Amino acid sequence: MNRSSTKAQAGANLPALRHHNAALVLDLLRAAGAEGVSRLELAERTGLTPQAVSKITARLRAEGLAVGAGLRPSTGGKPRTVLRLVPDARFAVGLHLDRDGLTAVLVDLAGRPVAVSSAPLDFGAPADRVLADAADAVRDLRAAEPRRPVLGVGVAAPGPLDHRNGVLHRVTGFPQWDGYPLRDALAERTGLPVVVDKDTNAAALALALDDPGGDFAYLHLGTGLGAGLVLGGEVHRGARTGAGEFGHQTLQLDGPSCECGGRGCVEALCLAAEARGDRAEAARVLGMGAANLVGLLDIDRVVLGGRTVAADEDAYVRGVRAVIEERAARGGTGAGVSVTAARGGDRPVAEGAAQLVLAPVFGRVGGGL
Ligand SMILES: [Zn+2]
Question: Ligand 1 centroid vs 233 CA: distance in angstroms?
């Protein structure tokens, strides 16, 4: 049994059920897009009674979240009224705080970006300065689209961090952030609910929306290296929300020293090969780490992202695929595992950050307002 069905059953006798059922209906409306879906179909697919669906859809219409989308002929009976989601009824802001840049995006309920901005950022600057830049980016986006109601701000930041409490941990190379309450500090400055997650988890969440039930890893190689893991369609964060610290696995005992204090880490070996212009070796190192992950978790696919990958997608995809295929050919795990590059370079991170806010609206675990 997966976690969402456990959750649905656990909620069966709780007042939250109404909210949960509304989220199920909203999720179906979103999936149907402009074509819409009839109340009867909603009842069939959610398992709710037609009366319950009518109540929910009436409320969603009253809140401006759903609207009639005409009539659809049905076999035999009278034509059915079709409903659709109103994508611009609510919006969410996604922020990607990277080590040297800040990307902000305003997305609608369908996950479509309606405004994007990016600017340089010094993540090593005092926290107040970084917070001021982040709050300014949110304010400017909202000022550009003043009539758009914003549900909250999702922030994607370098890990490790505590997703549940929105507190950063010791980011490699930026120890001053250790223990910083980013979520609460930004909520105070923007006056909006804030949810914080790792950059890699945000991107993984965005990709998971198109892959219900999927098992995959998103490997992000930019100024650092990390992973977002999706198991059974849900972002896997682990007991302390620290899962996916992929970059600091030791690949080479007594190898070159890494900024984390260890030696021979995947990240150090990969970035060192990049720095000396040996991209094939960098891809091979990344492939070794990926193949270990495939062997450990038996996932279906590996998605590569981040700007270092975006600079030469073919080389990275080819290199990583070669290592995984070679291991599978020896009888190891990994036969048929697909290796692809995420579209849009870093864009899935900022858009995924907004999904941290939107996912719970559609009853999807993985967000967290
Ligand atoms: Zn390391």
Answer: 29
